[in-house]
């Protein structure tokens, strides 16, 4: 009887080791970011600047929106600037949109109000040097598990992201306001 129990225990341990190793390998693959050459970026073929599902032209929040709704909008706005394997949804990160989000947060009693205001204040001031970290803070508040930001796109990748998701005419306005 002891031999049977020990054999089953050994088999269970081997199965756990195999599946655990497989899970770690897959997790590490997910975190690897596909990079593009300068030629691919210039031609708009960077994986970071591709069209994403759920890109919206305008904000869909107002002063009665919940913290979760505002966070979802901020998350979509960061997709214009960050490097990540997976992105769902996008909203233009314009000065007007940033100010609107900031004003909604200022008038709120959200649990994460102070942290969200710090992020939007940086954005209002044109400081996107930590937008990848901002994304990951927002992503964590949403319980994110796929699509962690791994850096910030080049201006050329961002330009192509805007073209692919919002159109050629929108990118001209964006470039004019930079």
3D structure, described in words:
The structure is a single chain. With 178 residues, this protein is mainly alpha-helical. It is 58% helix and 4% strand. It has eight helices and four strands, in the order ααβαββαααβαα. It has helices at 2-31, 38-42, 67-78, 95-106, 113-124, 131-141, 155-166, 168-176, and strands at 55-56, 82-83, 90-91, 151-152. The protein has a two-stranded parallel sheet. Strands 2-4 form a two-stranded antiparallel sheet.
Number of beta-strand segments: 4
Name the overall outline: globular
Uncertain regions spanning at least 5 consecutive residues: 23-30
User: Would you list the SSEs in sequence order as H and E?
Assistant: HHEHEEHHHEHH
How many helices does DSSP assign? 8
Q: Strand order across the biggest sheet?
A: 1-3
* Structure class: mainly alpha
Describe the largest sheet: 2 strands, parallel
Q: In which range does the helix fraction lie? A: 55-70%
Radius of gyration: 21 Å
Structural topology:
Elements: H1 2-31, H2 38-42, E1 55-56, H3 67-78, E2 82-83, E3 90-91, H4 95-106, H5 113-124, H6 131-141, E4 151-152, H7 155-166, H8 168-176
Helix pairs in contact: 3-6, 4-5, 7-8
Kindly summarize this structure in a few lines.
The chain is mostly helical. It has helices at residues 2-31, 38-42, 67-78, 95-106, 113-124, 131-141, 155-166, 168-176, and strands at residues 55-56, 82-83, 90-91, 151-152.
Q: What brief labels describe this structure?
A:
about 180 residues; mainly alpha; two-stranded parallel ribbon; two-stranded antiparallel sheet; 8 helices; about 60% helix; about 5% strand; globular
């Amino acid at each position: 009887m002891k031999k049977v129990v020990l054999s089953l225990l050994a088999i269970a341990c081997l199965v756990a080791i195999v599946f655990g190793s497989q899970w770690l390998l897959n997790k590490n693959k997910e975190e690897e970011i596909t990079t593009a050459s300068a030629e691919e970026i210039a031609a708009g073929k960077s994986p970071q600047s591709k069209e994403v599902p759920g890109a919206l032209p305008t904000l869909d929040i107002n002063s009665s929106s919940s913290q979760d709704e505002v966070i979802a909008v901020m998350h979509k706005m960061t997709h214009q600037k960050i490097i990540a394997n997976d992105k769902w949804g996008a909203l233009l990160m314009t000065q007007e949109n940033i100010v609107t989000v900031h004003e909604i947060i200022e008038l709120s009693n959200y649990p994460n109000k102070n942290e969200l205001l710090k992020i939007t204040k940086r954005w209002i001031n044109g400081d996107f040097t930590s937008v990848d970290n901002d994304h990951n803070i927002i992503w964590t508040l949403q319980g994110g598990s796929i699509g962690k930001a791994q850096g910030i796109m080049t201006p050329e990748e961002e330009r192509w992201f805007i073209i692919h998701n919002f159109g050629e005419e929108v990118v001209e306005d964006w470039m004019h306001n930079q």
